């Protein structure tokens, strides 16, 4: 039976045992020159000697609550298992089943970025710790304090006080954007408590989204990283830190050579904010976005799927004040291309708060340039895409309406507004029913939904919807883009095929 892959954070804080991942080089090229190019560097010893002392072992301890005893099952008198269970639980109690608070410890990695004592690691390495220590290669051990942490990127900044007269070895960050797939890298850390362990591999992929947070943008490497490597550095061949090792993918807990690191260009501004403010200060513009699918791209005459489609705009937010509207497709932000929906939250978050930026949007087939001033994200909220596919219960049996595109629609009357509990500010045509198994049903349109626009034109009556769909057919369009709202006002866009 095939096992479903399971994703693990690799720090000891998660306490998963991970086997070492081997690096296998396929040297099958027939030409000597190509074989020489693929065998990798002859040695990384010189580079390792320069940076090894900057890598530290992070050890933590914490007090955990006492365990609770399991009550003896209430069995009927004379049950064949009564005597067995009584003896079993009596023995457990004699062995001290109810223990008091106890201390547990864990191990991870980190690295010094400033001789003054600033150390970078993963947040999950030091999460919930009562005490944190940095153990150096020379055997010294210094107590560390948390300067700041970022749970969304999984980073933490620590500070130790160097011993008098001692200068700490530090490393500097490199430019992770310069990395190419196939470039050689080396990881140094503390796997299984074996401090100062070095492994070598290559960059396997870039810009990986592993669904660990809203700003996923990981480097993927086959350099062996294991339990205890979390928070350790990933170096390029110049000895610059280009990533912070954070996670692996594994079917059963053993490493299979698929590891992930936070890129240095993502980490550097976060670490700078933690150092200056003790917290992160991310950019925010106040929009709810969704993916541009091929059907939506065709409906909006984009040519190909690109950008981030705005589903709704927060009232009085930076985007609203800058003139952005629902239905706009953001293709550029502050001079940076927005390739897809996932790119926009990352770009916005990295933009300084209060900076005025230019935003390029596609609106009704034409590009427009707008300006807005970036606000600050409330860390209690994270940017999220429209939740397409969310199912809602059907409403009571509706009156007859017009059937098209797998839905039955009618005008939004006061009676229907009350029946479906539709907010007063919503306007359009209301969905009375949805054909089971239709594309509309698969994409989450349900009874009570309100269709406000068809291909970015407002609709108030079923005839307007029919006329707009007929016009799209005449234009040779294959799908119609609907702006759909649930009764509570959550807006999203979906494209339905025109039959």
TrEMBL record:
- Give me the reactions it catalyses: Acts on substrates that are at least partially unfolded. The cleavage site P1 residue is normally between a pair of hydrophobic residues, such as Val-|-Val
Q: PROSITE patterns under this entry?
A: PDZ
Claim: Nucleus is one of the keywords in the record: no
Q: Tell me where in or outside the cell this protein is found.
A: Periplasm
* Limits of the PDZ domain: 274-365, 401-487
Which Enzyme Commission numbers does its entry carry?
Answer: 3.4.21.107
- Please give the InterPro entries that the UniProt record associates with this protein: PDZ (IPR001478), PDZ_sf (IPR036034), Pept_S1C_Do (IPR011782), Peptidase_S1_PA (IPR009003), Peptidase_S1C (IPR001940)
Where would one find the signal peptide in this protein?
Answer: 1-35
> What keywords would UniProt list here?
Hydrolase, Periplasm, Protease, Repeat, Serine protease, Signal, Stress response
Q: What class of enzyme is it?
A: hydrolase
Q: Name one Pfam family in it.
A: Trypsin_2
List, alphabetically, the PANTHER family matched: PERIPLASMIC SERINE ENDOPROTEASE DEGP-LIKE-RELATED, SERINE PROTEASE FAMILY S1C HTRA-RELATED
Instruction: Family membership, please give it.
Output: Belongs to the peptidase S1C family.
Protein name from the UniProt record: Probable periplasmic serine endoprotease DegP-like
Q: Which organism is it from?
A: Ancylobacter koreensis
């Amino acid at each position: 039976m095939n096992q479903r892959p399971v994703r693990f954070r690799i720090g000891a804080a998660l306490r998963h045992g991970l086997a070492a991942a081997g690096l296998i080089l396929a040297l099958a090229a027939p030409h000597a020159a190509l074989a020489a190019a693929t065998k990798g560097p002859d040695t990384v010893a010189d580079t390792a000697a320069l940076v090894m002392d900057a890598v530290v072992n992070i050890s933590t301890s914490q007090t955990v609550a006492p365990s609770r005893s399991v009550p003896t099952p209430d069995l009927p008198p004379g049950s064949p298992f009564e005597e067995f269970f009584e003896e079993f639980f009596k023995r457990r109690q004699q062995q001290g089943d109810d223990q008091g608070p106890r201390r547990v410890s864990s191990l991870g990695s980190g690295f010094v970025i400033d001789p003054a004592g600033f150390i970078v690691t993963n947040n999950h390495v030091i999460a919930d710790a009562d005490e944190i220590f940095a153990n150096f290669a020379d055997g010294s051990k210094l107590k560390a304090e948390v300067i700041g942490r970022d749970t969304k990127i999984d980073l933490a900044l620590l500070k130790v006080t160097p011993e008098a007269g001692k200068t700490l070895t530090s490393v500097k960050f490199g430019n992770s954007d310069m990395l190419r797939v196939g470039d050689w890298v080396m990881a140094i850390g503390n796997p299984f408590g074996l401090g100062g362990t070095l492994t070598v591999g290559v960059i396997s992929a870039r810009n990986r989204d592993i669904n660990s947070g809203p700003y996923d943008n990981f480097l993927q490497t086959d350099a062996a990283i294991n339990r205890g490597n979390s928070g350790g550095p990933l170096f390029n061949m110049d000895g610059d830190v280009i990533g912070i090792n954070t996670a692996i993918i594994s079917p059963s807990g053993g490493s299979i050579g698929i590891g992930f690191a936070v890129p240095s260009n993502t980490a550097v501004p976060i670490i700078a904010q933690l150092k200056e403010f003790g917290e992160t200060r991310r950019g925010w513009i106040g929009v709810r976005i969704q993916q541009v699918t091929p059907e939506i791209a065709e409906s909006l005459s984009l040519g190909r799927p690109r950008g981030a489609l705005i589903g709704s705009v927060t009232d009085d937010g930076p985007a609203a004040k800058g003139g952005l509207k629902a239905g706009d497709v953001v293709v550029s932000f502050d001079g940076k291309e927005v390739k897809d929906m996932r790119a926009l939250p990352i770009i916005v978050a990295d933009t300084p708060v209060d900076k005025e930026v230019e935003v390029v949007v596609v609106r009704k087939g034409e590009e427009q340039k707008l300006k807005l001033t970036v606000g600050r994200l409330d860390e209690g909220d994270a940017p999220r895409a429209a939740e397409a596919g969310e199912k809602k219960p059907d409403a009571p049996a509706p009156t007859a309406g017009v059937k098209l595109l797998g839905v039955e629609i009618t005008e939004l009357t006061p009676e229907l507004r009350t029946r479906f509990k539709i907010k007063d500010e919503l306007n359009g045509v209301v969905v009375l029913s949805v054909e089971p198994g239709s594309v509309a049903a698969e994409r989450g349109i349900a009874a009570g939904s309100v269709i406000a626009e068809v291909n970015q034109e407002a609709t108030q009556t079923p005839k307007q919807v029919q006329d707009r769909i007929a016009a799209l057919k005449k234009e040779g369009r294959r799908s119609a883009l609907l702006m759909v709202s649930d009764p509570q006002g959550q807006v999203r866009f979906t494209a339905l095929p025109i039959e």
